[in-house]
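call fold(seq) -> tokens
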Amino acid sequence: MAEKIVKVNVEPIKANLDQINVRNLDSRIIVKNKAAFLEKNIPNYFSIAGVLGLLLLWQIVSKSGFVNEFTLPAPTTVLSTAGELISSGSLWPEISASLYRIGIGYAVGCILGIVIGIVLGFSKLGEKIGMPIINILYPIPKIAILPLIMLWLGIGEISKITVISLAVFFPIIYNTYTGVSQTNRLLLNVAITFGATKFDLIRKVIFPSALPMIFAGMRISAGVSLLILVSAEMIAAQHGIGSFILKNADLLVISKVLVGVLVLCIIGGLFNYFLAKLEDKLVHWKS
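ret:
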């Protein structure tokens, strides 16, 4: 059978392809990055500007006559009062008493919460036994049991430190337990394959993996600890920021009350600042 040879003219096809390539080279498609806002860097001075803007608004409202300046002293008045209290030395005993209570209470609550949270998240037996107890005790307002704690431990410093530790303990233990429970199982399997012991798993895999959640709990607990501190000092304390605020509120010295509130704001801000710096140092791999 004779083979039939078919001739195909490829020149028009080649010409068309060349035209398409030229056209594609000439046309430029601009694609907008819709996720650019996630990578946008905002200068740090915006944070300072926000605080100064709030203080300026407060100053204007207080001096404009919209509110009675007796009930809402201007920031300049509050700062002047704070300067007088600091120069006279009458504010330092209140601050030192509060820092002592919150420092020890916060540290004890964090340590116990992290340790027990790791145990509950790592051990199935510990989870079955411990989590129901934690779930039952957590909703109880900690300041509500302060009279009971004072009955057991007395009205001294131990009772106040204990109630602060309890308030810090529960957010920490929940966040630690969640962080440990959500550890990537693949990482655990790889570590076990390479001969890691249970202690090695906790120290080198589980604890670093849970650190972001632990720091989130520590930040939440910082605010809670200040709340419980002030409440405890208002109930039973001769010295402390809470007692200082209550005494001056009874005397209607609003400028001194706001000085106490300002001190609490500074303590809370320093708490968050140092926790953020510590997190950046220990969890540098998160970014």
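The chain has eleven helices and no strands.
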